Amino acid sequence: MGAKGVMLALALVLFMVCVAYCQRHGSGGRYPGGGGYPGGGGGYPGGGGGYPGGGGGYPGGGGGYPGGGGGGGGQFCNRKLSEVLFVTTQAAGLRALLLATPETRKQKKINRRGRAKKCTRFYIIPRPHSNERLLAMEPGAWGVSTALLCIVVALCIAWVLQRKHQQRLLKRYGIPGPEPSLFLGNWKQLKEDRLEVMNDWIREYGNVFGFYDGEIPKVVISDLDTIKECFVKEAHIFHDRMPLVIDVEPITSSLLALKGEEWKRVRTVLNPSFSSAKMKLMWNVMSACGDTTVEIISQHISTGCAIIDVTRLSQALSMDVITKCALAWQVDCQGNADDPILRRLRSIFLEVDQNMMASAVALPILRKVYAWIFPFLSYGRLFTTITDNLQKVISARAEDTKGRPRATADVLQLMLDARNEAASQMGGKPGITERHLVANCFVFMAGGFETTATTLSFVLYEMARHPEEQERVFEEIMSQTTESSEKLDYDHVQKLKRLDMVISECLRLYPPIVLFTARVSSKDVMLGGYTVPAGAHVILPTWHVHRRSDLWTEPHRFLPERFAVDREQRERRHTAAYVPFGLGPRECIGRRFALLELKTVLAKLVSQFVFSTCEETEEPMKLTVPTVTLNPMRNIMLRVARREV
């Protein structure tokens, strides 16, 4: 019998004990006479009982107290619920819930609050198993309530035992790691400072160790050969990404969350949409957005130079590019600093409800509840707004049966074209549905917004701190445009190798995704000398691998020369040593798009402006991981001046 079977058996045994207890102490057998009350007669005082019987006040005959005579018609037993009031009794020192007739209320002078002004002991016998008996603390009335209470206690005990058993899983497999707490596992520890805590754990436990999010086991692997084995060689075993804490549409239908054959089918259809040739079709949109940024900065520095919030500037630019290229929206994210879409998307990444996250980690059943109420939250309404717009655009384009070529391309159109092409090759059966199109456009927008924005701000920060490197990039840009006497175009951008090196080094120092590159083990498998249990999440700690001193010379320094175009050097570098976009079959599909956007925008900015540090620039910069992406603790502030050419 498994662990869960043992827990359920224990709960059943406790339940049976509760029932037996209630039967022993319930009605029948505790008092003389039938029904659990003194006297005879089916549970109410009859003849010869221990309560007054005469005068019609109680059912049954006389006896026990003076007053003799045949009992009356049982007045109190027929009273309505509205006649139930609180009065005070001296019996056993308890406040009891008793029945009172209008006459007794008058006699006892009960005030409007239902409290007796004079405490006089008298007896009124309620119906068996009623709420009155329960509140009067009679033992026989606790049958059902005690059983329910004991069931709850038994289930709680079973849950605690099951949770502790689950949280010993990695220890049973011999995988070291920090001790988890009962409810949150190690989630709270990691939330405080993900980068530093993970550093401490790697130093203490080595290249393979485990921790828990609630009851979910997670195994961290920082050995390069083991990483490659997991993400590349054994990708058929570690195929699926780890699920989000709260899975909701449209995310669940995207490449981020799809599993198994469905993921493989959708990825196969969408891959051609992100080829280098297709990315070239979107370059004009990226270039136009970069020109808008140049104009906005020029307005700020009309007097010579200005201190600019590079973080917010990068977010507005990234949102402008991604909404136009992915959603076919014409928005003014850069011109309007309070754009509602930009503001609400920013809040998703920086202001996630930590209480909701913590409770979902502690009690996985709450994930279903939160997924149900999500559409009614502000985030959910934003999701609905975006998906509704996408569905309208898809429907409008589907009605255009003439198939006329578009002047410019966007990700949505490329996905539609890929779906139609796949359908023609599969005999009219589309490989993906409208649900997949909407979901992947949405995730492309959400993921591309934050990751590209933070990377852009980090690159500008490092170039401001290293002006000599900024000048090298500027000279390279000028050499391309001077030779052709033309404006910067797609081909020029592709030839900017020094800028490539700068971007690559910044992605090494500041990988956008720090601890979310993970896969789920579909079965027990040996990795790095340990057996990783089925269902465990295997995590690649990207930030920590990128800063290992045994892999990189002076790992914390900004040295773009690491990525010089040297075939021998590239071949010597381990495949898993540099993984800003992930590794293996599930590597980020938008990698080419992100790099092209970064190069295009940076080329335009560096060719027009000089970026330098100022008093408001935080050095050294503190980092944080509020959700899944790496961010500066404080917004990056830089001095920007017009370049004198």
From TrEMBL:
Question: Which terms are listed as keywords in the entry?
Answer: Endoplasmic reticulum, Heme, Iron, Membrane, Metal-binding, Microsome, Monooxygenase, Oxidoreductase, Signal, Transmembrane, Transmembrane helix
Which domain of life does this protein belong to? Eukaryota
Question: Which residues are involved in binding heme?
Answer: 588
* Keyword Zinc included in the entry's annotation: no
InterPro entries with a match to the protein in the record? Cyt_P450, Cyt_P450_CS, Cyt_P450_E_grp-I, Cyt_P450_sf, Cytochrome_P450_3A
Q: Does the keyword Ubl conjugation apply?
A: no
Q: Which residues form the signal peptide?
A: 1-22
GO terms (molecular function) for this protein are: heme binding; iron ion binding; oxidoreductase activity, acting on paired donors, with incorporation or reduction of molecular oxygen; steroid hydroxylase activity
SUPFAM superfamilies named among the record's database cross-references: Cytochrome P450
Which cofactors does the annotated protein need, by name? Answer: heme
Q: Pfam families, per this entry?
A: p450
Note the topology in the membrane: Peripheral membrane protein
Q: What is the designated name of this protein?
A: Cytochrome
